[in-house]
């Protein structure tokens, strides 16, 4: 009985070579006959080479254990890797679809907010013809909204330094000029006419980049400018309510926004500021730049008199118009910068073109703007040229 529980050294060495001997917990209880002699080291080696011992269980029978042979464990890892890969492959289409839905929501919100802003902005300017104060209120409202969001930690405040604000300054100057010029234009002409002229911005971009910066473009880019310039000229000539100040305001806005884009690309490289916070900082600096000029050009006395007149004509609803145009101006610009964070410049250019179409059509319908067929043809040609430009530029 006792001899049956003893193992000779040769038997122990033979058992150690088995594949399942690595963990004491997995070692099966097997009784082996004891040898009738006590081997010396030389006989031990001879016994090990001549003694053959077959395991009672093979590696294939151990697959039910938590730890099998090396091949079994690697096979288990391969199966787990395949399962994980299949799960990741299934998640990729879902993530791509969710990204498309997110971009679609950004685009739809951007267009809707822009249309609403233009409607309320035109209503305010028709009753309160002070575009400098109207522009200032738009920037002030957006700046206040973002300051409150940062203070309450609804939005994370950007990490900026003095160098950031220095590089932002020329961008803010160009943004201020473009914003005021566009508001002046809409105070003198129809919203649709302003946006038809503003669709010619790509032509200004190419001309400035070519003659001031020395950049060259493919022939397709230059050819795309022909329908833009021709369409804008045709729409301007046939505009029933043409006004030179309104026309020049839209042209100056185009030029200013081209320089804004150039300064932004050159100065903001390597700056880790999100699109939402970048536009917020731009609004704050533009507000600081614009406020003294607005006071000098129009002044509090004209504002007070015009405000009283507007309240008498429209009533308390006029206050809602001013608040709405200020809030929606900031929101539509904020969503445009957030969209630019998620998409390519080409997709953004196409979206901007479609936005222009939605504003033109909606303003004509809401304000019953008189338009001739030849005027509509000019607008369509200009917008088509803008689309072709975005394709050729990329």
Automatic annotation (TrEMBL):
Domain Sugar phosphate transporter stretches: 102-390
Topology class, membrane: Multi-pass membrane protein
Major subcellular location class: plastid
One Gene Ontology cellular component: chloroplast membrane
Bilayer-spanning residue ranges: 103-120, 132-151, 220-238, 244-263, 275-297, 317-333, 373-390
Keywords from the UniProt entry: Chloroplast, Membrane, Plastid, Transit peptide, Transmembrane, Transmembrane helix, Transport
An example Gene Ontology biological process: monocarboxylic acid transport
One example GO MF annotation: organophosphate ester transmembrane transporter activity
Pfam families for the chain: TPT
Presence of keyword Ligase: no
SUPFAM superfamilies: Multidrug resistance efflux transporter EmrE
Subcellular location: Plastid, Chloroplast membrane
NCBIfam families: tpt
Protein name: Sugar phosphate transporter domain-containing protein
Lineage, opening ranks: Eukaryota, Viridiplantae, Streptophyta, Embryophyta, Tracheophyta
